[in-house]
User: What shape does this take?
Amino acid sequence: MKQDFSVLHPNPGWLNSDDLSCEVKSENSQHLLGKHCILELHDCNQFKLNDEAFVRTTITTAVKVSGAKLLNLATHKFKPQGVTALALLAESHLSIHTWPESKYAAVDVFTCGDHTMPIQACDFLYKEFESERYSLKNLQRQTSIQLSHDFRQAG
Assistant: This one.
């Protein structure tokens, strides 16, 4: 049975890309701060997992797919194998850690704001690394108190 990401983003329209406010009012008097996806990719293409240039390109495209704004990207190639990449976003972060010898990758995508779609980034990564199976945990980061409304501008 083939798995797919059938979750639709609750706001299919795009808000103004300059609006990077991190707080959205949710039901039940909670304040939604962001969406946090924990993705585990199993039985991936081990050559792609060990290719630092491929990981850099793929994580950059995943950020674009999510609707987030990339501020910085850092990658590191381990010896004898493995790659870690961290995309610093105006809305938070996207990271991936690979274990090519196990055909496994751990992915973390946390975004603030209603204009971002972290699940779309996860779907893209799942396909690009040719994962045969995955595990996805989708969390909503919330607080019972309203945080500052001050706009944070990314550099």
User: Anything to note?
Assistant: The helical segments are 46-49, 52-66, 118-128. Residues 56 and 85 are 7 Å apart (CA to CA). The radius of gyration is 16 Å.
